[in-house]
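Posted in: Structural Biology > Protein-Ligand Complexes

Title: Requesting predicted complex, zinc ion in pocket

I'd be grateful if someone could produce the 3D structure tokens for the following input. Sequence and ligand are given below.
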Amino acid sequence: MKLDDLRQSKNIEDRRGQPSSGINYRQASGGSNLLFSLLFSRLGWKGKLVLILVFLLFGGMSGLGNLLPGSTSYNQYQSSQVTTSGTNISDQDAIFMSKVLGSTEDFWTQEFANNGYTYDAPTLVFYSDQTQTGCGIGSSQAGPFYCSADQKIYIDTTFYQELSNRYNAAGDFAMAYVIAHEVGHHVQNELGILGAYHQKRAKLSDKEGNALNVRLELQADYYAGAWAKYVEGQGLLEVGDIEEAMNAAHAVGDDTLQQEAYGRTVPDSFTHGTSAQRKKWFDLGYTHGDLAHGDTFSVANP
Ligand SMILES: [Zn+2]
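-- Reply #1 --
Done. Output follows.
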């Protein structure tokens, strides 16, 4: 991605290297951490990459599904001294991400105005290890996530480092896609979709709730695709960027993950959509580049 001439967003909160405010936490469920460790130890590098990407994007999930007020994932913690493991996002990476955020602001301000709305941009927070959020304690184990209560996107430094190490130069647009997806959740919040989703989900069974969650995630992928069309229109994309995002979208499909992990798929437990669905909705966003065609909730088969 060619970002040289882009402005940096001012909506950045840099908590890199800050001590973790003396907080330590135990995840209430403990489930995802355990699952992560188990899977991680069993997978080859390819599987590990997929898992990291999954956690990067599912981080958005954590923000939506587990970290929101009324939810309990991060609410059990005890006081103790925690030292930070250092700052792993370089200044260069931080500038890259703030430029990506700046371009999402320009795009969504314009697209909201086209529809008669006003866009209030989210804040992007860089942090190390763990940090206080409006949705409880954010931890590097959650990956990037969006908290609707404080309207902030949290990016932890170690996951960024993992991503750029393993993806090498090809990683820049994959990271941009991750940010655009999280911004997509903020767009849903701005439009009232997120609030409606939580109200509706509370009344559903796990299976129905998962199906609704898939639609929410696919819409965030659509919005990320819409932003990609905008930056392409500005001549900022390089050869391979869209493929990179599409591959990332594909790699984090629930079926791909489960196939890697268990050798079989369990459709009822899908919460993010299949690889094909995620690619499809990113591509639809990339084709239309607007809010109007991104209704993943009304279509029969998203
Ligand atoms: Zn998400």
